[in-house]
Prior knowledge:
This protein is α/β, with parallel strands linked by helices. The protein has helices spanning 2-16, 35-41, 45-54, 82-90, 151-155, 177-193, 198-218, 223-241; strands at 20-25, 28-32, 62-66, 75-76, 97-102, 112-127, 131-141, 147-149, 160-161, 168-170, 244-257. It folds into 3 domains: 1-94, no CATH class; 99-197 and 243-265, no CATH class; 198-242. Strands 5, 6, 7, 8, 9, 10 and 11 form a 7-stranded mixed sheet that branches. Strands 1-2-3-4 form a 4-stranded mixed sheet, covered by helices on one side. The chain starts with a helix and ends in an 8-residue tail after the last strand. The mean pLDDT is 87.
Amino acid sequence: MEQLAIHQYLVDYFTAGGCQILECRPGFLKVKLTVALDKLLMNRPFYWHYIEKIGREPETQVLALKTVQTEEEGDFIHFGSPRLHQIFASTKNLARYVRLYEERPANGKTQTPLYPWLGMNVKVSFQCDLKKDFLFSLGLNLFNGTILNHFQEKLESLPLTPKIPDYCYTLTPMIKPQSGLRRLEAVIEQVIAQEDFHWAEEARERLQNDLDLLERFYEDLDPETYGAAYEKEKQSLIDLYEPKIQTHIINGGLFYLTEHAMHNF
């Protein structure tokens, strides 16, 4: 399921970035980059300096990505892969928050209300000397408080537009976005609290074993001479093994949807 989520995230990322999708099928994606994303992702500063200096039309690169390990050409993308971390980081230079409306065909002059949803995509990292990442996508109806998981996937089936459609109006949120954000963060905290923390116990056991070895190594050495080195190595082991849980909001936005938009899921 994680790889499916990554594939969908890549499709959303490059589509939102205005890239041309050359090929898209399960486990594989090939895109023609825009100038902006070529500069962000492909590390070609000398090329862009030369092209811009002579005023020549640039040729952006084609990027092939795969979320299933095959012999096919392309970068294998998974949690922990450098390319995915690069893409996550690049969102800081792009629009991380959006406002979109569900597009509706005109139905005479009948006014259609659109309900406000707060959507948030979050990466949660469980980290010690090993690391595991999870991707969560949550949506909160700011009018009635409904919370849905896999929100990004549900949005994929809806026609969305940055401009409010004709004969539609938005309902005033009963929950302020800032308060909604805290609610979604609380949901993430609840999910984390229900996880099996056996991995953390095992990490602390490995830490203690290495600390015992370090202690035995230095026990016959002069503390005045080697004390600083001992403390430095001890702290390095603690920093390496000590379990940590980190959360990072990748992106989010406000989505104005019809009343029944999410009822089919």
